[in-house]
Amino acid sequence: MSFDDALVFLAGITGGALRVGVPFLFVSLGECLTEKSGRINLGLEGVLVFSAMAAFGASWLSGSAWVGVLAAALCGGLLATLHGLLCSLPRVNDVATGIALMLLGLGLAFYFGKPLIQPQAPQLPAIALGGWSSSPAVRAALQVNALVPLGLLLAVGMAWVFANTRAGLVLRMVGDSSQAARALGYPVAGVRIAATAAGGMIAGLGGASLTLFYPGSWNEGISSGQGLIAVALVIFARWSPLRCVMAALLFGGAGAMGPALQSVGIGWGYHLFNTLPYVLTLLILVLTCRPGAVIAGSPGELSAR
Q: Please, which residues bridge with residue 143 across strands?
């Protein structure tokens, strides 16, 4: 491999990590916020796909990609709010409700999204990080989603709120010990519903990035399980928003490995490299989810289940 090929490959991995990793980042941040309150939302795959459809449809109808982003956040928040309300009822299981929510979101997206398969919607602007290079391949590889800075700011903001504010303290208290929170007079159900709704809105931004930037179109198989993978990402990141950024980049880089190799003329094993995110997910679950073991950083209410 020549120096130019190596440069194109590295640019492809870097740019691919930022493109492919954006949905992972937003969904993992949304799930991190939800789980900090002591609730699991396995329905984020449905939230992601439904938000992706809503973003594309709103962008197509309005002519503005940013209207699509807003629609994605609102639809993700509405679907997650439904999950939060249902889970607040007596004897309702988070996991079972999350699976039902996932199926609901997928069904709604497929039903309402059928007219959107052919049209082209306005796309989000790209941030050019490759202006320093004279290589067209490098410049093309380093076109970054305009939502990336927002995701990074969200991660930093969430980490600061968790560690330095009263709201963050209450959220962590509810997630660690609901009995202690109730004893101090905090509405546990209300906090969890709010956290779940906000987490769904953040995850919805990941859906917008799918249909309004990369791959930039709507189809029924657009997610490929990224919403479910993001739940494993939160475990890998030890419920830290800043670590979610690194985990999303790692998974995004793994997903970009195949296309990056193709860009330098190496086609062997392309489909094999496309399985890397799923292999990493299985590896993380095998290494971390041991019976009877409490994972460091896990909210107490989740560990007690």
A: 128
